[in-house]
Amino acid sequence: MRTDAVLAGLDPEQRTAVTAPAGPVCILAGAGTGKTRAITHRIAYRTLTGEVSPRHILAVTFTARAAAEMRSRLTELGASGVQARTFHAAALRQVRYFAPRLLEGRAMPELLESKARMVGLAAARAGVRADRTGARDLASEIEWAKSSLVEPSEYAVAARKALREPPFEPAKVAEVFTAYESLKRRQGVIDFEDMLRAAVWGIEEHPDVAEQIRAQYRHFVVDEYQDVNPLQQRLLDAWLGGRDDLTVVGDASQTIYSFTGATSSYLIDFPRLRREAVVVRLVRDYRSTPQVVGLANAVIRQARGSEARLRLELVGQRPPGAEPELKIFPDEAGEAVAIARRCRDLIASGTPASEIAVLFRTNAQSETYEKALAEAEVPYVVRGAERFFERPEIRQAMIAMRAAVRSTPGETPLVTAVVDALAATGWQREQPPPGGAAREQWEAMAALVALAEDYAKAPTVEPIGQAGAVQRDVTLTAFNEELSRRAEQQHAPTVAGVTLASLHSAKGLEWDAVFLAGLADGTLPTTYAKTPDQLEEERRLLYVGVTRARQWLWLSYGQARSPGGRARRPCRFLPQLERTSATERAGDRSRKPDRRRAQVSSCRICGATLMAGADRKLGRCPTCPSDLDEELFERLQKWRAATAADLKVPAYVVFTDATLVALAERRPSSPAELLAIAGIGARKLGQYGEAVFALVGGASPDEVAQKNFEN
């Protein structure tokens, strides 16, 4: 049965989410817990069992990339025909369809791709002098207001209440907002928020439109529900029309877009407002090692505020890996050089450049790392440029490959045909050009070749629910068709370079190795975060960064922004890691670097990262089972009491209770094993080491005391 294939491989929580009955379902999905898998399999399961028709489902997400991935997975699961779109794409489709009815035969207004230019004109009309940057900031402020259902006349009050920091006086922003709306109407254009409002208006004010839309879409799925803004929620409510077949998935701990108007309140309040809702918590993290998961848990464990009510304690499912590393450098330049060198070493040891990311708080930090990577001859890609298939060089390449079909013999291997076609555009496989922009274009073309190589290596496909494999055509014609399909779905390949990205733009992505750079107070959290809510969002931003790493994680900061500058404190959200001096003076070869690395301790039972001092001393999580030798513990207690009495000091001066538990659990038999217990150094090794080894070996406290007396 095809549903068996859909349910195969799901963990118990995922299976509960997939098979939940019709009605409100809230999936609280932590980072790396398989949320997309859960919701796509839920959709497929419901369609394959005949519970719902694919054409009656609308799945909504926030990026075209996520929507494309959802459509691709649903097709593989045998659930083609489901509409998976962004809020804006779904609204645009509906407004265009109903425009003749809603606009009484008038043409639908042109859609503004960007507000900045018209906002600049509106600012001039309102007597506000705004340069290009100022116009962008004003556009963002207007976008926040419209997404929050705030009218121009309400802006000043709403902005103060929301503790906004607008680029101009609130009253002036309101004037620009008013002028912008007037200018749009005069020119007959609308923006993206207008389009969402038009979709809402069409449903709320036109019963015939509402009836037709609600007859079409009867079952709804919303991804990243913590990022919904009031306008999007208003549209979702209009679509639902009081019905309750709604599945939402989100993670309150990944709420990082509040500045745009997004609010996690709809996710937080979902179970309260829908008492009959099924709530499923996905906490098994399949992405990251237990060490990375432990650090992520430690970062978010201290969170406060409403989002913390839905905080999830992740449980790592992967085998143990390397401990996260914390590095401290004299300045940002030294930090960037060290990161570039480590990237180069990782690539040399076999880690693909595309599986490495350097993440930072603001885009303004990018230049330092770009320079360091360029000097280290490490390829890199700055995330945030055009989508892959929208790049001019890729468009040119696809035209060249389509033209090459006519002149390429049918027996030509696919990769050879692609390389030859690209050569006609001037691209040379073995000669990447110098210069950042030229190199980036070369890497983009190389990604097409890599796609061809992958396509040629997988000549057959076996869709779920079908018996036998289907032979795939690996000709240049078929590959061109595959590229066109990917372009339509915005499914871009990974360019072979280290990714440089802000923490915000890294959301939803993951890499084998991640560098979290610039973790200094004033940068993360930013100096602009002043209220408790703003600071908590900065904490969640760090959490998002940590959870991007699959295997290897490096956290670092420069003590000064520039050589000789004022010293800064480390990010306040970092757990109290054991930071020995990890300073590396990258430019001073004459100094021998300090080899002691500031690492996070791991649980010797489950491998999770340990943060609390007592946990590090025990070498295990407080929830992991204890292997305490109770008889040894009693002998240690008696010996400690006698030793403290002889020295006329409190018992804890000899060893604390936690240390005695650690000794009775870990039973050290060598100096190295004893020193591995947190809090025991060379002095206590010399004072009490011989006695501890004797007690661990089975000696009684009296025997140890007698031996000490004889010595």
Automatic annotation (TrEMBL):
Its EC number is 5.6.2.4. Pfam families: HRDC, UvrD-helicase, UvrD_C. Residues 8-289 form the UvrD-like helicase ATP-binding domain. InterPro entries: DExx_box_DNA_helicase_dom_sf, DNA_helicase_UvrD-like_C, DNA_helicase_UvrD/REP, HRDC-like_sf, HRDC_dom, HRDC_dom_sf, P-loop_NTPase, UvrD-like_ATP-bd. ATP binds at residues 29-36. Residues 290-551 form the UvrD-like helicase C-terminal domain. Keywords: ATP-binding, Helicase, Hydrolase, Isomerase, Nucleotide-binding. It catalyses: ATP + H2O = ADP + phosphate + H(+); Couples ATP hydrolysis with the unwinding of duplex DNA by translocating in the 3'-5' direction. Residues 626-706 form the HRDC domain. It comes from the Bacteria. The keyword Cell membrane does not apply. Belongs to the helicase family. UvrD subfamily. This is DNA 3'-5' helicase. The lineage of its organism: Bacteria, Bacillati, Actinomycetota, Actinomycetes, Micromonosporales.
